[in-house]
Amino acid sequence: DTEVTQTPKHLVMGMTNKKSLKCEQHMGHRAMYWYKQKAKKPPELMFVYSYEKLSINESVPSRFSPECPNSSLLNLHLHALQPEDSALYLCASSSHPSRTGIYEQYFGPGTRLTVT
Amino acid sequence: RKEVEQDPGPFNVPEGATVAFNCTYSNSASQSFFWYRQDCRKEPKLLMSVYSSGNEDGRFTAQLNRASQYISLLIRDSKLSDSATYLCVVRVPGNNRKLIWGLGTSLAVNP
Questions:
Q1: Which of A88, A61, A65 lies closest to A76 in space, CA to CA?
Q2: B87 touches chain A (CB under 8 A)
Q3: pLDDT for A42-72, tens place per residue?
Q4: Among A17, A64, A65, B14, which one is least packed by beta carbons within 10 Å?
Q5: Under an 8 A CB cutoff, do A112 and B87 touch?
């Protein structure tokens, strides 16, 4: 089973709000990711957690704050967002290498965020 | 030159047709390659990892040509449900976690 769940499915927030996106996986994966995807573009990597430690931050503005409470959960805290931050936010996790040494990433359904 | 390049399409094919997508990558040190499919307003789903020897999964066949630095995806006997965007993805050499994504090729299978 390669299931990654995300809540909420949709979120509308004002520029002064604080909200959080949540992601959960029970596949025993030890790397989890946040991506942002705009329409007709590929996903853009934001953050990577490896063994519950932040290993990659792709120069993301501080209004996005990730958190990894445990190996199954990943949060993205949002504060003072701008309308241009409206996008599909995708969580992913990656398996241990298969027999071929390939790390495969599996995506959740995403949270569609609209900032007004 | 872009790191991963794909023909954006759209490819319009009738049901039952065979369709092939190619993707080129610029870094000869790349080691891991993937095809994802993405339906409109949905998440990317891993279709296949591409192995050096090539691999097949039902109607889908993926090939890797290291000499020419391209990856291909062949879909046989196309179904209406194959209509989607197909994304070619390459892992950043030396980094297990970072992927480079092509812009995707759009496929429409028509009745």
A1: A65
A2: yes
A3: 999 999 999 999 999 999 999 999 999 999 9
A4: B14
A5: no
